């Protein structure tokens, strides 16, 4: 038997001016004129160049007109610190974005401060020299002084009171000068030593995710790394980058709005009632952009719309908060972090909010490489009740970053509807090198269902329903399994949310993972990795072994989902239930589809060690994929949760299944039916193999988990293939 517990688990935007009036001189020390970028360039006339002479392209910037600069200079003299309302009014008069005005005033204040500090620094240096000379004079006087009584050297105490006071004051002034000089040095144009190290530092990695990609391991099985630590190795933008980031974001927002609202010929109807981007029309329409497509990359563009049960204010808040965003979209976003907030918005909301982020996007399988992006996210209110949030890659600001994925302007347009509903139009426009995708997942990735707008909208719609159900007041009481208390429902849903997020972030090919393949016989090989669980109240302490395998099975994804979520079928595949009867003890519906629910199951096994074991399970489904995730839970801990207690201290090791369609297919009458042909099934277990975190992983534990997952797969295949026949 297993002594194991199942677990829980560049190109830059072309910022060329639209007319000659936009040309103005750049930032200088003596004649301050600003631009939205911060690199100083001298204007070069094309007539002066030899056409045959090959020169590298220079970045083109949007420069403020002379009138704009003069008006802002005049305003600065009266008010160097304008508030949000003044910046907004000034931007309207000058035809600029409020953020551009904000950064101009920031740069102007910085320059004025630098000039002031240079002057003060010069005075302080002169004073320092004077004091040093005076100090030397005192030292010399002390050295030559003699005692009037004995003729020997004079002691310090025999110095005059004034001399002692001057020496003490001299030391104090020297320390003050050194301190102020250090501060002033930051503004005199000298590079700080740390600025030379602002290039991004990604950890060494490979999309193949072999163990060797992560260097020496502590054992024969790869380990899970701290995702947050890896993201923190990416630095935020420099001060020199920020005005250019504003320009990129403003142009991206303009492009997103046109992409979301345009019809033909930009978007054309494709097969299966889908929309396809006309790339030729796109290039003609959007002459400014992040540059041409890189060699080896292909374009993925999709658009999807839906009405969701959430008001526009909450939607915007979720999208602008990295933690909420990665939680709601945990099946797509494996890791996310806000590196720096450049603007929090105006008028007390997210209008004008701008932040630089990094994120990793995934498919729930170790066989599909994740997609990493370093991007800016910009939120803007266009009209009353209409908001838009746009992302666009900042690869051009990171020349050392070899990106395999770029986000052209992507995001969503949100329109307010009555009764707390919103209409969402989502646009995903990606350029990616996907040559590392395993063959069985290639049709799904090529169809756009893996990373496209349809998956984002499907996930959002489902999660909005889940959130709405957690706040429901009128719960029908006809079913005895239904949890009717609001506190109990909220706690159980919060626990299930943590379980689902833990499973989703642990099953993919994230660079935080070091999967080790146990065999090399095919795509359905079992991959394992370990994690040391210490001082985490949400996980049992010890050595946790994760195992996962992905394979194709000729069973429709809906059929696969219904089989795995049904507690009556559990004994056909769950080895650890030991054939015992499984009974649903509590149930929370969290969506229109009956498959979207959270359940508490009891396993009534003849084995006394497993009798009365409880299993927390959440099943969820939408048109692009499904999950069945579960974890054994302690009875006493669940009683506390059902009473409305804090679920954060319930130890979970989630396991489960991710079910994806093998690509778009045709159902009855030739209608598009996602996953009508077969399913891509990922099976993932987490097992506590030793309760001592410092213990060594044994080969026997790995062999046991390998056998467990292979046996489970065979049982599932036998059961569903028999029923399918």
Automatic annotation (TrEMBL):
<dbReference type="InterPro" id="IPR001356">
    <property type="entry name" value="HD"/>
</dbReference>
<comment type="similarity">
    <text>Belongs to the HD-ZIP homeobox family. Class IV subfamily.</text>
</comment>
<dbReference type="GO" id="GO:0008289">
    <property type="term" value="F:lipid binding"/>
</dbReference>
<protein>
    <submittedName>
        <fullName>HOMEOBOX-LEUCINE ZIPPER PROTEIN PROTODERMAL FACTOR 2</fullName>
    </submittedName>
</protein>
<dbReference type="InterPro" id="IPR002913">
    <property type="entry name" value="START_lipid-bd_dom"/>
</dbReference>
<feature type="domain" description="START">
    <location>
        <begin position="238"/>
        <end position="469"/>
    </location>
</feature>
<feature type="domain" description="Homeobox">
    <location>
        <begin position="55"/>
        <end position="115"/>
    </location>
</feature>
<dbReference type="GO" id="GO:0000981">
    <property type="term" value="F:DNA-binding transcription factor activity, RNA polymerase II-specific"/>
</dbReference>
<dbReference type="Pfam" id="PF00046">
    <property type="entry name" value="Homeodomain"/>
</dbReference>
<dbReference type="GO" id="GO:0003677">
    <property type="term" value="F:DNA binding"/>
</dbReference>
<dbReference type="InterPro" id="IPR023393">
    <property type="entry name" value="START-like_dom_sf"/>
</dbReference>
<dbReference type="InterPro" id="IPR057993">
    <property type="entry name" value="HD-Zip_IV_C"/>
</dbReference>
<keyword id="KW-0175">Coiled coil</keyword>
<feature type="coiled-coil region">
    <location>
        <begin position="114"/>
        <end position="144"/>
    </location>
</feature>
<feature type="DNA-binding region" description="Homeobox">
    <location>
        <begin position="57"/>
        <end position="116"/>
    </location>
</feature>
<keyword id="KW-0238">DNA-binding</keyword>
<dbReference type="InterPro" id="IPR042160">
    <property type="entry name" value="HD-Zip_IV"/>
</dbReference>
<keyword id="KW-0539">Nucleus</keyword>
<dbReference type="InterPro" id="IPR017970">
    <property type="entry name" value="Homeobox_CS"/>
</dbReference>
<keyword id="KW-0371">Homeobox</keyword>
<dbReference type="Pfam" id="PF01852">
    <property type="entry name" value="START"/>
</dbReference>
<keyword id="KW-0804">Transcription</keyword>
<dbReference type="GO" id="GO:0030154">
    <property type="term" value="P:cell differentiation"/>
</dbReference>
<dbReference type="InterPro" id="IPR009057">
    <property type="entry name" value="Homeodomain-like_sf"/>
</dbReference>
<feature type="region of interest" description="Disordered">
    <location>
        <begin position="14"/>
        <end position="67"/>
    </location>
</feature>
<feature type="compositionally biased region" description="Basic and acidic residues">
    <location>
        <begin position="26"/>
        <end position="36"/>
    </location>
</feature>
<feature type="compositionally biased region" description="Basic residues">
    <location>
        <begin position="56"/>
        <end position="66"/>
    </location>
</feature>
<feature type="compositionally biased region" description="Basic and acidic residues">
    <location>
        <begin position="46"/>
        <end position="55"/>
    </location>
</feature>
<dbReference type="Pfam" id="PF25797">
    <property type="entry name" value="PDF2_C"/>
</dbReference>
<dbReference type="GO" id="GO:0005634">
    <property type="term" value="C:nucleus"/>
</dbReference>
<keyword id="KW-0805">Transcription regulation</keyword>
